[in-house]
Amino acid sequence: MISTEQLYSKFQECSGLSTDTRRITPNCLFVALTGDTFNGNTFAEQALSLGARYALVDDPDVAHREPARCLLVPDSLQALQDLARHHRQTFQFPVVGLTGSNGKTTTKELIAAVLSKNYRVYATLGNLNNHIGVPLTLLAITDQYDMAVVEMGANHQKEIELLCSIAQPTHGLITNIGKAHLEGFGGIEGVRKGKGELYDYLARNEKTVFINSRDTVLTAMYRERLKSLHAETSPAGSGFAEAVFYPGEPIELIQESPVVIYRHVTGEDVTTHLPGRYNFENILAALTIGDYFGVSPADANRAIADYNPTNNRSQVLVKGSNSILLDAYNANPSSMAAAIRQFALLPARRKVVILGDMYELGNESETEHAALGQLIASFNFDVVILAGQDMKFALPALPTAYYIPDKFSLHNWLMDHPMTDTYFLEKGSRGMGLESVLPFL
Asked: Tell me, which fold does domain 315-440 have in CATH?
């Protein structure tokens, strides 16, 4: 068996790291992970033949066949996490960690865009934000960078605690607490506790926290953390090194649809590519962190204005005479409600909503989908189209809505009912893949 220190020495010989034989690069380290439906150990020899320098495995039989190039450990996933933790300890620069129920990725991208005006920033690619993605993110950071922004996602308690132990953020932010992953967290209080593990880490290690002062839940969580630390007989830390509440200066929201326009304290009016008040909150976080790290207001505003969302998040698209607000990367009751309210504000002659199931709600799914139906019914959308098995629970409040059980039938329906001069909202959980609807609009 190889130790973490020995493994790190081998890793430093490599050009990078891969967990997928389809993405092998010359002289990389291949990590053989095992899941419910796959065993990476069975691909180790293939990875070596494709050019990997070493393969990290936890199967002794596989290691025996290539003893010089197979690095044997008791558990490949644990070894990957330990390797990332070891690598993280070589960083001497700030690491901004963020989590939250909604807006994590957009906020991460905005923070990185602002900080990049002054620093060489490495930010989480895509949504590599879980127990595998965070280690991969950290191990991709080299000494050419002088700041990192690490997104941390979770669908159950103790996961953020684990990710903090690996990423070891020096600064942190929770975007919000909402109804996401209720099944795994065990309800909204479980979400609060799970996301709050970032505050716990920052407080115990005397690090800096950024808190939206207008969010009563987050400010209450901050006060509770301080009270808890004070009550402990032997706390590991005495509290946050610093708590930065924002917005410290008035930044005015001028327009929230179809895109956010805000007025900075400098008097500059900034037009963004992001729709909705919820994105304004994400912008405020990025401006605050940029200001904290010395980015000038002019540079920060330019970074915000230039940021154009991708990956099916808050994208405004135009197809012929139709406009589309594509927010189909994910959905939960909180983000769905915010998107619907924002869409209702849009100045459009004809508005159509295409909504897919919200996943991972457990026993709350029927109640939350029914509540969504009631919310939609409070607005006068021209057409409401509901797709997915659980969207049927929204129907009682929407007798004129079109209900389609799966997205492939939805494709056919849209082909049979072409629409023009229409503004569409598309939103649903990742598993629904509603971006596949785009060719039919």
From this structure: Protein-Tyrosine Phosphatase; Chain A (3.90.190)
